């Protein structure tokens, strides 16, 4: 026996005092106070993540106007003037000002009064396939390029989306700020939860590890035998009152088939399923579809009334596409298998996309990145994705408008 592993003589083993319920309370209170202190110190200065500033050439590019058109519009005086360090120096615009320019020049189609926003769930049970990156870029892009009001719901207990907003899900998010009060039934809907973020027109319902509790709460409610309780509809019902306020509600999910993920799938008007073109991801996609189909069909049996679940659209997004022969082969399999469900936009694998996340940044956070070509390679596909999603939604809104008139 190793000397250090010799059993201690009985009389040397220390006897601890018994741990009582009061002791547990004391420790719980002490840790909550400690967490509060950590949170307070981390929140200084606030806000900790800043939106980018847009020089006038970037605003021109976003608005599709040239220098002359911009200076005419500036002279007209109706649009934000930005700031200028001196005469002849380039003007700089805040994100809010830039969005105002986009709204005035591109005039994105507005959602008609009474029409509802759209819920997009980003999901795949496979980990690391860029669900969070896709959801966050889409949310920022829709706010910037199409002047939409967007809410991102982080439904992943890992809180990766929350982290990208510069918020620490472990130290700074109280369970009352997450979707949990809705899940527990202490809140009727999610109106209590959206918080402003550093990004104009983009709100967040953050996540924390507490979200794991949903995996006990929801099945417990099922076992209590409430006849009308549909565990898979809790989130959709909670979101419903927010659909007047937001054009888009984007849900980031965990890489698991959990009760929360099921809720996100059933809440969705449309789905984006990012997939990385490697053999393992391809085979797990096959599993995903089989489970997804079973789930949607299986719920039919639970429902006594009402329509079965359907989606406006389902989009398989090939993402982190490397410039390699093997990836091209898998891409072909994906296209052959999923045909029209495959999104025409493809996101390449790039070093910039990989490293930006280590600084808690997304592509839309860094429009002034120095390497123009490296930036363009990854920014353009995201712009195309944003435009595709919004164009399709506009068509849906038009269609719904026509149906309402007919
Ligand atoms: N286009 C890209 N090129 C290279 N790396 C990328 C690209 N997009 C995202 N990544 C990196 O891939 C990793 C996984 O991305 P992300 O966290 O978005 O995946 P996820 O599906 O949300 O993961 P999880 O299943 O853990 O929630 C991150 O480190 C991210 O920086
Ligand atoms: Mg994620």
From TrEMBL:
Q: Identify the domain of life.
A: Bacteria
Q: SUPFAM superfamilies recorded for this chain?
A: P-loop containing nucleoside triphosphate hydrolases (SSF52540)
Q: Where is the AAA domain?
A: 118-293
> Where is the secretion signal located?
none
PANTHER family, per database record: P-LOOP CONTAINING NUCLEOSIDE TRIPHOSPHATE HYDROLASE (PTHR13696), PARA FAMILY PROTEIN CT_582 (PTHR13696:SF52)
Put simply, this protein is called: AAA family ATPase
């Amino acid at each position: 026996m190793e000397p250090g592993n010799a059993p201690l003589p009985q009389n040397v083993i220390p006897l601890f005092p018994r741990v009582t319920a009061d002791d547990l309370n004391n420790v719980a209170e002490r840790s909550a106070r400690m967490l509060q202190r950590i949170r307070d110190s981390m929140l200084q200065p606030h806000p900790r993540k800043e939106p980018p500033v847009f020089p006038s050439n970037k605003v021109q590019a976003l608005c599709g106007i040239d220098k002359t058109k911009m200076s005419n519009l500036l002279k007209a005086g109706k649009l934000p003037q930005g700031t200028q360090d001196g005469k002849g120096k380039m003007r700089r615009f805040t994100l809010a000002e830039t969005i105002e320019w986009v709204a005035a020049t591109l005039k994105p189609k507005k959602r008609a009064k009474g029409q509802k926003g759209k819920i997009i769930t980003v999901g795949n049970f496979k980990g690391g396939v860029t669900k969070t990156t896709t959801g966050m870029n889409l949310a920022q892009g829709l706010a910037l390029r199409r002047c939409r009001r967007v809410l991102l719901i982080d439904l992943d207990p890992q809180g990766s989306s929350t982290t990208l907003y510069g918020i620490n899900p472990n130290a700074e998010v109280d369970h009352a700020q997450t979707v949990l009060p809705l899940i527990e039934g202490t809140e009727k809907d999610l109106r209590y939860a959206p918080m402003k973020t550093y990004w104009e027109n983009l709100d967040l319902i953050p996540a924390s590890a507490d979200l794991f509790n949903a995996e006990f709460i929801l099945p417990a409610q099922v076992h209590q035998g409430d006849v009308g309780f549909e565990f898979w509809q809790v989130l959709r019902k909670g979101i419903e009152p927010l659909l007047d306020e937001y054009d888009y509600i984007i849900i980031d999910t965990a890489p698991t088939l959990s009760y929360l993920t099921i809720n996100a799938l059933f809440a969705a008007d449309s789905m984006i399923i990012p997939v990385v073109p490697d053999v393992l991801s391809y085979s797990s996609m096959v599993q995903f579809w089989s489970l997804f189909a079973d789930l949607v069909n299986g719920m039919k049996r639970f429902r006594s009334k009402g329509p079965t679940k359907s989606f406006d659209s389902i989009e398989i997004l090939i993402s982190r596409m490397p410039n390699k022969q093997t990836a091209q082969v898998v891409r072909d399999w994906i296209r052959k298998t999923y045909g029209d469900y495959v999104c025409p936009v493809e996101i390449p694998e790039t070093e910039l996309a990989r490293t930006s996340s280590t600084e808690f940044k997304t592509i839309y956070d860094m429009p002034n990145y120095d390497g123009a070509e490296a930036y363009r390679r990854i920014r353009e596909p995201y712009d195309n994705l944003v435009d595709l999603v919004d164009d399709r939604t506009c068509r849906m809104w038009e269609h719904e408008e026509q149906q309402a008139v007919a």
